[in-house]
């Protein structure tokens, strides 16, 4: 696999070059050239903002089909907490869990249960003296990649604990292997995902060599089969193991609520998260204990691969969580986790390098000076009409040889105006055809 894997991809045949996407991308990863968008791998964080705003559906998220289950002897579903907010008139989570078993899975382990475990582990982390505060949640992979690209100075603030998805996968596989005697390699665990970023984090993990999850299936792909199953009369089998607090991780503020802490800040929507990260980087929030940042509006319920309106799903999660009476994990269970699974990140989360202007430092400095000069001569309106998200990125693209100054419509208009004036001046100096003809005859 290459250095960059992305779930968010572009179908060029559908792209109409409208430039909607370039203005919404939080890492300036998209350009429009020759009437078609292009995604820059080094900058993309798979947040899915371009999927939301593209009116032609040219941006899509690549996830695994249900047929991937055929590759494994034993199949485990790892439903995201946000899945349970997709269905109307749902009195409990049991039927959705049962539905997943009816469409090809042998076992279901809720990621909300993984969230219950991670909650306890983060509580212990917060109790350690002299940690870098605020701790920043690492549950949203799009936010982690945003920090890698734009805020590398904050990498040491990230919680170095596995995500609920990874914890759930390990617990489920270990449980199935020990109970049924099936080798781990014959067990497949599949996340039912609300977003593209989770697919990317499985194929290209952050903080680990490999993921314990074997694939990601979009909520959109299971919504229909599950809905059909929900029409069957209720069964009485007790299937849910997670707490209401674990389920609440699906919405903004769910982490802080589950941990029972007061001094935390929860922000959703990646464009709202960025200014808060800037404040933290400038050391203006050192009195804050915990920052819960979520790329999608409303939290994971607002993911681009969900079916239901995020605000409707959020209310459903609230009602479901209120009725769940399962107890939080006790100390023996947490101790078991610590002793038997990989719950800490094994590698440092490092800066994700954005493209350098040049590998030679002297040449890079010269190009930077050229870029600054070009930028000063541009109008500074950041209109995006040139196909770059801002005047500064256009200047960078020009230096890289990927654009020209005439891509700016204002510069082009100035040039056309200047050429028109020169033509008028020339026409006044050139004799008329008749006068020229008489001069020739004489």
What do these coordinates show?
The structure is a single chain. Helix 14 packs across helix 15 (391-400). The protein is of the alpha/beta class. 43% of the residues are buried. The chain folds into three domains: 8-61, Alpha-Beta Plaits, CATH 3.30.70.20; 66-340, no CATH class; 361-429, Electron transport complex subunit B, putative Fe-S cluster (3-methyladenine DNA Glycosylase II, Chain A, domain 3). The mean pLDDT is 92. The radius of gyration is 27 Å and the shape is elongated. The protein has helices at residues 20-24, 49-53, 94-102, 111-126, 141-150, 164-180, 196-203, 219-230, 244-247, 254-259, 270-281, 310-322, 331-340, 361-377, 391-400, 409-429, 433-441, and strands spanning 8-10, 30-33, 36-39, 59-61, 74-79, 107-108, 135-136, 187-193, 215-218, 264-268, 290-294. It has a four-stranded parallel beta sheet with strand order 6-5-8-9, sandwiched between helices. A three-stranded parallel beta sheet has the order 7-11-10, covered by helices on one side.
How much is the radius of gyration in Å? Answer: 27 Å
First-residue to last-residue Cα separation? 81 Å
Helix-strand pattern, N to C? EHEEHEEHEHEHHEHEHHHEHEHHHHHH
- What amount of the residues lies in strands? 5-15%
DSSP E strands, number: 11
What overall form do the CA principal axes indicate? elongated
Helical segment count: 17
pLDDT averaged residue by residue: 92
Q: What is the count of structural domains?
A: 3
Sheet with the most strands? 4 strands, parallel
Low-confidence stretches: none
Structural class: alpha/beta
What level of helicity do the residues show? Answer: 40-55%
- Spatial strand arrangement across the major sheet: 6-5-8-9
């Amino acid at each position: 696999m290459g250095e960059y894997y992305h779930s968010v991809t572009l179908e060029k045949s559908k792209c109409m070059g409208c430039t909607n996407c370039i203005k919404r991308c939080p890492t300036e990863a998209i350009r429009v050239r020759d009437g078609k968008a292009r995604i820059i791998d080094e900058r993309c964080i798979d947040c899915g903002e371009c999927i939301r705003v593209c009116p032609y559906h040219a941006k899509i998220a690549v996830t695994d089909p249900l047929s991937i289950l055929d590759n494994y002897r034993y199949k485990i579903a790892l439903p995201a907490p946000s899945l349970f907010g997709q269905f109307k008139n749902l009195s409990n989570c049991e039927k959705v869990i049962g539905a997943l078993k009816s469409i090809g899975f042998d076992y279901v382990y809720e990621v909300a249960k993984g969230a219950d475990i991670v909650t306890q582990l983060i509580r212990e982390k917060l109790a350690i003296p002299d940690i870098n505060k605020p701790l920043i949640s690492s549950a949203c992979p799009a936010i982690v990649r945003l920090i890698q690209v734009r805020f590398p100075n904050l990498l040491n603030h990230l919680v170095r604990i596995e995500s609920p998805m990874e914890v759930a996968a390990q617990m489920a596989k270990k449980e199935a292997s020990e109970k049924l005697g099936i080798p781990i390699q014959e067990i497949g665990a599949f996340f039912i995902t609300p977003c593209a970023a989770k697919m990317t984090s499985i194929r290209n993990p952050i903080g680990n060599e490999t993921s314990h999850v074997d694939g990601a299936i979009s909520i959109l792909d299971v919504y229909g089969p599950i809905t059909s199953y929900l029409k069957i009369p209720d069964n009485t089998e007790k299937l849910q193991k997670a707490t209401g607090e674990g389920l609440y991780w699906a919405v903004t503020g769910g982490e802080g609520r589950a941990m029972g802490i007061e001094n935390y800040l929860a922000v959703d929507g990646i464009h709202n998260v960025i200014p808060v990260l800037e404040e933290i980087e400038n050391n203006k929030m050192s009195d804050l204990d915990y920052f819960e940042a979520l790329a999608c509006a409303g939290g994971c319920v607002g993911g681009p691969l969900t079916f239901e309106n995020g605000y409707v799903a959020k209310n459903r999660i609230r009602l479901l969580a209120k009725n769940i009476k399962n107890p939080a994990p006790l100390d023996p269970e947490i101790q078991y986790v610590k002793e038997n699974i990989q719950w800490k990140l094994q590698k440092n989360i490092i800066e994700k390098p954005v493209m350098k202007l040049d590998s030679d430092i002297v040449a890079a400095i010269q190009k930077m000076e050229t870029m600054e000069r070009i930028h000063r001569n541009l109008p500074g309106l950041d209109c995006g009409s040139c196909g770059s998200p801002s005047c500064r990125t256009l200047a960078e693209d020009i230096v890289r040889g990927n654009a020209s100054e005439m891509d700016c419509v204002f510069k082009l208009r100035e040039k056309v105006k200047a050429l028109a004036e020169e033509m008028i001046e020339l026409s006044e100096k050139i004799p008329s055809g008749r006068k020229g003809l008489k001069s020739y005859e004489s």
